[in-house]
Amino acid sequence: MFSEKQLVNIDLVMNRIREFEQRALLLYKEGVVTGSVHLYIGEEAVAATACELLDERDYITSTHRGNGHCIAKGHRTDLMMAELYGRSTGYCGGKGGSMHISDLSLGNLGANGIVGGGMSIAAGAGISLGVYKKNGGVVLCFFGEGASNEGVAHESMNLASVWKLPVVFICENNLYQVFTSVKESLSVEDVAVRAAAYNMPGETVDGNDVFALEESLGRAIERARKGKGPSLVEAKTYRWDGHYPGDGYFLGGYRSVEEVEEWKKKCPIKKLEDYLLERKIVTGDQLGSVKKAIVKEIDAAVAFAEKSPWPEESEVYKDVFYGDTAE
Q1: How far apart are alpha carbons 272 and 267 in whole angstroms?
Q2: Coil, helix or strand for 136?
Q3: The domain that contains 132 carries what CATH number?
Q4: Residue 324 lies in a domain
Q5: Total number of domains constituting the chain
Q6: Fewer Cβ neighbours under 10 Å: the N or C end of the chain?
Q7: Is residue 325 included in any domain, yes or no?
């Protein structure tokens, strides 16, 4: 089980994700951040819990809703904010934006704007770890319920099972694929039942409950480390905001105001903090101090991004093609 120190850290990570995302949304609305921002607000427990179970050997692959995964994996918020601003000091030199942040030194093989795009990458990384390195490392593959319908999902899970690759497939089921409910798009109620087709364990878990996630993901990660192959963990959760900032129909359109408000009552941050307070692991003042410190951190990240230079024109092909220049 998580120690008290780990639980406090998970709370800190969830709050950091929440504040970063809220600020990113505000900056997008102000026209400072361009491109697109897909918010992770409401889903923070999945990434924060999963990455707390990892070590330096391990990799993740992410999604278009990937800022939370990046922060949970240890990325600096100032470099992330610079990336959203399109500045040269960003993780990808300002060329990726919020959907394409990566850092191999942190084991992040990349957020991905393609639905299911990280799944085959996860299988490839699983080959590297399980077939060649054999160092006990694992790959966490985050994907949405919409990606579970993509052909690459089936191919990747099948291959991972055939070769017993150390991959944990984590389906973040937030119930909506853009504007479409899972009731209209999935042939099954629980994505996890599809694991049976690939001869791997499959579990559905409350994605807003740190302790439920720890138990399920802990089993899957331990299984992968022992060379027993992949698992599929489906975390039922919910995005509070629209699919993207311009989604004006998320309230009273394809989902009701009542539904959104009901899920907000299940806030993963409040749920964990209630536990910490009830058991006197932290005080209200300590939690308040953490939140204030995170606000200051994000303020500093914004200031860093604003002062950072734009990429030079000469760098337009750098890191796009193999080698320094396009030929």
Answers
A1: 9
A2: coil
A3: 3.40.50.970
A4: no
A5: 1
A6: C
A7: no
pLDDT tens digit string along 100-131?
999 999 999 999 999 999 999 999 999 999 99
Profile the chain (327 residues) by mean pLDDT over runs of 10 residues: 97 98 96 92 98 97 97 98 97 92 96 95 97 95 97 98 98 96 96 98 98 98 98 98 88 91 97 98 98 98 98 85 61
- Strands 180-181 and 202-206 come out as unpaired
User: The domain containing residue 174 runs over which residues?
Assistant: 4-308
Q: Residues near 87 by Cβ (< 8 Å), separated by ≥ 6?
A: 94, 305, 308, 309, 310, 311
On whether the CB atoms of residues 230 and 181 are closer than 8 A, the answer is: no
pLDDT, position 324? 58
326 in a structural domain: no
Sign, CA dihedral 26-29-31-36, equals: positive
User: Two tokens at 157?
Assistant: 């899970």
DSSP strand pairing (176-177 vs 139-144): unpaired
Question: Residue 320 domain-assigned?
Answer: no
